[in-house]
User: What shape does this take?
Amino acid sequence: MTDLEFIRQAIEQKAEKILAANDSIWGFAELAFHEHQSAELLCRLLTEEGFEVKTGLAGIPTCFTGTYTRGSGKPVMGLLGEFDALSSLSQQAALPQKAPVSDGAPGHGCGHCALGTGSLAAAFAIKEYLDAFGQDGTVIYFGCPAEEGAGSKQFMARAGLFDDVDFIYTWHPATQNAVESVQSNAIMGANFRFKGRTSHAAASPHLGRSALDAVELMSVGCNYLREHVIPEARIHYAYIDAGGTAPNVVQDHATVRYEVRSPFVYQLRDLFDRVVDIAKGAALMTGTEMTYELAMAFTEYVPNKALAAVADECLAEVGAPQWDEADYKLAREFLNTYDPETQAAIRQEIAATYGPDRLEEMLERPLDSEIHRFDAGNIRLQAGSTDVGDAGYAAPTLNLNIATACVGNVGHTWQMAAQSCSPLAHKGLLTAATVMALAAVRTKDRPEVIAAAKAEVLARNGGKYSCPLPDSVLPPLDTY
Assistant: This one.
């Protein structure tokens, strides 16, 4: 029996349990830092499979590890699991029409239910492989909360959870099958709180000091700032507290959340400091007081090329999920739910990816059944951010994408939530588990790959992980 045949069999034996866990976590749909049922379920499954579970790590109640060690325990292999949902994306499972389970409730619009359980299946398969072939090694499943919130991996890295890990594999539900060949942006975010003085807006406006005015002036200043930053930078904001609903009362409190992004973490501080200066100016102009709470920051994710070469080889060997006609029909129904503007953009994306001559074919059968090979010389920047970058800044880390939704699917939508509890996600997460487990056991036996992967990390971090957040910033469990 080959290593791939063994891993396929090991995952198949656990498939029913893993898919049930995906569907349960999908149903829990818990928000960042509050994934208590999801974490409890994953920890129970790890314990049942003989893993040593530690909970409440890095100052986060839903952060945990499951560890299995055999022999010398070397090398140490890591798998990242996520399981948080997104607000307001409740949707009935596998249903290609908008129909919330509960209006306004959270939903798994990014597929983290599948992400967490797919990585869990890989951890189980690696354990079975070590036992069956009498090999040394340690496999650690990292339960990582709140990727959609303020993140957890930067706090986990700061706590040293990744320090002794030789390499880490992870994955994300997607529309294509490929080792991810993009670099994400670094990001930093804070809540800016303004305090003013209330007064009657008509009778005595001169006695009031409007915190809401300060927030709006801060937004004006940041909009002017956009012209004077590097093109790749991003500045986002959201009103957290507008100070009330009565126009005839001068608002004495208001809060706005700002997040800034740039390609590299070392660029963040300067950009963030400029936003802080604008906030100070807004407070000065309005006679208010300003405080801010730095609450989140992620390091940029960069694919580890040494690990990517192994994973790309394994992905090609495993192949894409095995779709059937029912899967294509379901995917086509989801694709047709998008509005005309989005469908036009999807058609352009399909033509660019598969070629104009295959557009109609892919619209008829809109599931990726191919492997898109990794090109180390063509890593492109994307605007998004992820705390996986902090794991990769502490230990060699690689992310791969496996299709769990129709081609062109838009993430963070009810469509993604529905597909995350469907046969599409089921087949995708089991494929991802197979690729990650195979890549881990292949990497384990290639010390030269591990050494090269560590050299890449050393070139980036200089020998030690440096958290973009100061030690004084704790996980914002209830404030972000």
About this structure: Residues 337 and 454 are 45 Å apart (CA to CA).
